[in-house]
Design goal:
The chain is α/β, with parallel strands linked by helices. Helices cover 54% and strands 12% of the residues. A 5-stranded parallel β-sheet has the order 2-1-3-4-5, sandwiched between helices. The longest helix has 15 residues. The radius of gyration is 17 Å and the shape is globular. InterPro entries: CheY-like_superfamily, NreC/VraR/RcsB-like_REC, Sig_transdc_resp-reg_C-effctor, Sig_transdc_resp-reg_receiver, Tscrpt_reg_LuxR_C, WalR-like.
């Protein structure tokens, strides 16, 4: 059962999310919150938090950063009416596992919850590549450690949003081998999940949007 907390200052929005999610037996809406501070309190220990960006008091970005500190295993999905790339990039850098728009189809919201809960792929990698484009190589810090050629390969595929099974197929290794490489990567990069690894990879210039697109095309041809 996926324990989900709904955070939005509009009760009508929260009710709509709750109605959609309650139709699925594997999802349990455990709490609702109308502001960021309440979202942090209710979301600590939850599996997934659907978080609005604009809320009174503590906004969704600050609440996401606080949740990342307090409850590292909790995954946050930003749900917003705003399509600003800067806002979305800020949310991802704050620790969000992904985002969906409030006008997205109900099925997309449900699948987003399931995907970030499984932690097996990056949510909406095509959007991430577009949003990351202006930020490639902009990080001031150096790569924290040396990455092996195989780890760099795995990181590029993570940036594509591919699952462990897809990466294993592309690199002709086992899923367990990929899982080991992913764990090593997250530890070396100090990333809490795959989305954070992808964001950091773009910022450090370890993978560019152009390289990611070329790798995606090559993988699909294979």
């Amino acid at each position: 059962m996926i324990r989900v907390v709904l955070a939005d200052d509009e009760k009508l929005i929260r009710s709509g999310w709750a109605t959609v999610l309650s139709l699925h037996d594997d999802i349990d809406v455990t709490a609702e919150a109308a502001d960021g501070r309440a979202a942090v309190a209710a979301g600590t220990g939850a599996d997934v938090v659907l978080m609005d960006i604009r809320m009174p008091g503590m906004d969704g970005l600050a609440a996401t950063r606080e949740l990342a500190r307090r409850s590292p295993k909790t995954r946050v999905i930003m749900v917003t009416t705003f399509e600003s790339d800067q806002l979305v990039w800020g949310a991802l850098r704050a620790g969000a596992a992904g985002y969906v728009l409030k006008r997205s189809p109900a099925g997309e919201l449900v699948e987003a919850v399931r995907l970030v809960y499984r932690r097996d792929a990056v949510l909406f990698p095509d959007a991430l590549r577009r949003i990351a484009s202006p930020h490639v190589g902009t990080a001031r810090q150096r790569v924290p450690v040396e990455l092996t050629p195989r780890e760099l390969d795995v990181l590029r595929h993570i940036a594509l949003g591919q699952s462990n099974a897809e990466i294993a197929s592309a690199l002709h290794v086992t899923k367990e081998t990929v899982k080991t490489h992913v764990g090593n990567l997250l530890n070396k990069l100090g990333a809490r999940d795959r989305t954070q690894a992808a964001v950091l990879a773009y910022e450090l210039g370890l993978v560019s949007t152009g390289v990611a697109e070329a790798a995606k095309s090559r993988w699909h041809r294979e």
